[in-house]
Write a structure and sequence with these properties.
The chain is mainly beta and 125 residues long. It is built from 2 helices and 9 strands. Strands 2-9-8-4-5 form a 5-stranded mixed sheet, with no helix packed on it. A 4-stranded antiparallel sheet has the order 1-3-7-6, with no helix packed on it. Bound molecules: copper (II) ion. Copper (II) ion binds next to loops. The site of copper (II) ion (CU) has 6 residues, from loops.
């Protein structure tokens, strides 16, 4: 019997032992929301994960749409074991922002990703 030739990294090998969804932590929800438009300047970023994460391995950087840095968001644990949150260190001007995040997966790998949101103040009457 012949087996298909596969090139397996450590990650893929683990994915065979465990369902792939279990291996790597995913971002499931965020506040400000993923691709959301908010009318009040957000003061913190809160991220909800598919698995418990180590706050020490979790962090985020806020960027402007042109990818210039706005500030580092220091993530800490919350009362919800599946979420972390951190303060936005500056008052945000209206515009589109990118949250670049990283966290640790159960298999020890660092997972990174990003999402964007837009801050558009409500029109004054
Ligand atoms: Cu992995």
């Amino acid at each position: 019997m012949r087996y298909p030739t596969l090139v397996l990294g450590a990650c893929a090998a683990l994915a065979i032992a465990l369902p792939a969804a279990v291996v790597h932590t995913k971002l499931v929800k965020a506040e400000p929301g993923i691709d959301a438009t908010v009318t009040e300047a957000p003061k913190q970023v809160r991220l909800w994960w598919s698995d418990r994460t180590e706050a020490a391995l979790t962090g985020a950087t806020l960027l402007k749409e042109d990818r210039s840095p706005v500030g580092v968001i220091k993530m800490a644990e919350t009362d919800d074991s599946l979420s972390t949150a951190g303060a936005i260190p500056v008052a945000l001007a209206p515009g589109k922002y990118i949250v670049m995040w990283k966290t640790g997966s159960r298999d020890g790998h660092v997972v990174r990703g990003s999402y964007s949101f837009t801050y558009t103040p409500a029109a004054k009457p």
